Amino acid sequence: MGLGPTSRPIQSSFPARFTAWACQPSLSVVPEAKPAARLSLVDTYACMKIGAAERQSVVTAQALNASGDGGLVLPVGGGERRSLYGAAILNGVRSHAIDFDDYEIPGSTHVSAPLFSALLALSQPQTLSLSDVCDAWIVGFEAIVWIGTALGYGHYEKGWHSTATLGPIGVAAACARALQLGPEQMAHAMAIATSSSAGMKAQFGSDAKALHVGLAAESGLRAAVMAQAGATGNTDLWDATQGLQELYGTPSSPGFQTMLEQMREGEALQQFPVVRKFWPSCSYTHRIIACAQVLADAVPEASAIERITLRQPEPFHRVSGFGTPTTSNEARFSSVYCAVVALLEGQVVPEDFLIERFARPERQRLCRRVDLDLYPLPSVPPDQLLALTPERMTVRLLDGRLITHETALLPGSAAKPMTEHDVLNKVEKCGGSRTALSRLLSAPEGSRLEEFGLFAA
Question: Which of 125, 114, 135 is nearest to 178 (CA)?
Fold first, then answer.
């Protein structure tokens, strides 16, 4: 007896509209979408490359070995061949190991890390072209952004790590596109992936945060493969009773019907551009780092500082709230520590999160001289939050001077973007080939990823 259809037709207008667009033979997108996809691929590759040697990545590889994982798929950043799912999870952990990867605003997710982690694994057995991978990334990005818009910032503020909840769904959509599934199968892949939507912000500061990305990549990819084989899910679960909106949203969530009124398929990258990182730390430390850089020249040495005051929104600081760090993970999630480093050095680099750096007595002492001035968030849509929540750093010097700087601009965002030159510099600093990745940015759409050394050790 053959396997026949066992599911109801798609009813919800969200999956029907989304998959009709996402499964077009030629994806209709705004002009900036495909260049953005390539730049995010290069940026994410850099993060995987430098993240390969981090302890989260090493532990994950050891765990895969212990489970007998092996196969034909090369992970990005070197190492032995893995199974399809093993490569996806290892890519994911590597991509987020030092929190250097990009993110988007409406869903508050690290969007490219899980998407490219799965797609770069899938690209090898499926022989996907550069264009195939980038189009799939755009589909995954759109899925995450529009679902994130429906749930609103309250989903993240409530305590969910959105990368781990929305990430699997976006990965499922992206991989369904890469596997050339039809609208119904893509809708089922996305629905199946919601069964893996889990992960709490309480894990921040531990290895589990990077593991969330690997698990999102693996589970979303698996959901797409299951749907390809004929597995089904409830495609009406998005705004159904006891569905995604009810369980993962809050009273302030706009909801799917409101979101659909503003959803413009293929235009998400124009409305909500990717934010790429200049520094390998929590994004909620970045405006404070920018303030500290402005003030750094006015501070002769650490001993000249009496007190430092940081003014931030309380929910933002809650994410980056480790004070004087005791581990590398805590240091990345400490606005206090990142402010001190940027004030003393004028810059923050990956080495600043090694124990020999964050344990320096001078830095530890100065961290204990930081005061906090926290304030509540206004009730506005996520894409308006930054403009209405400026952050400020004030330094009181022993000679009586008071120096201060305030900014609402987020480094790496559309207001202050990383250029192609900045991203290629990042590749070089992370151990990748600037020349090869520069070629990728302008290569023909049909190019194979192997041409750019993405899977080289």
Answer: 135
The structure tokens 């396997």 sit at 3
* pLDDT surpasses 70 at 69: yes
Does residue 399 sit in the same domain as residue 448? no
Asked whether residue 235 is assigned to any structural domain, the reply reads yes
State mean pLDDT over 103-111: 97
Query: What number of other Cβ atoms are within 10 A of residue 345's Cβ?
Result: 15
Residues 353 and 391 grouped into a single domain: yes
Quick one: which of 218, 212, 401, 385 has its CA closest to 295? 401
DSSP per-residue string spanning 169-222: HHHHHHHHHHTT--HHHHHHHHHHHGGG---BGGGTTSTHHHHHHHHHHHHHHH
How far apart, in whole angstroms, are the C-alpha atoms of residue 175 and residue 167?
A: 12
Q: What is the mean pLDDT of the chain?
A: 95
pLDDT digit string (tens) for 351-404?
Answer: 999 999 999 999 999 999 999 999 999 988 887 888 999 999 999 999 999 999
- The boundaries of the domain holding residue 354 are 283-407
Tokens of 19: 């998959």
Specify whether 243 is located in the same domain as 353.
no
Closest CA to 103 of 161, 55, 59: 161
Give Dmax over CA atoms of the chain in angstroms: 86
What letter represents residue 140's amino acid?
A: G
Cβ-contact 94, 77 below 8 angstroms: yes
pLDDT digit string, tens, across residues 119-145: 999 999 999 999 999 999 999 999 999
Q: What torsion, rounded to 10 degrees, do the Cα atoms 374, 375, 380, 383 define? A: -20
| Residue position matching structure tokens 């996520």 | 382
| pLDDT score of 13 | 87
Residue 386 carries which side chain, given as an amino acid letter?
A: L
DSSP assignment string, 143-157? HHHHHHHHH-HHHHH
Residue 181 has pLDDT above 60, yes or no: yes
pLDDT at position 422: 98
Q: Is the pTM of this model over 0.90?
A: yes
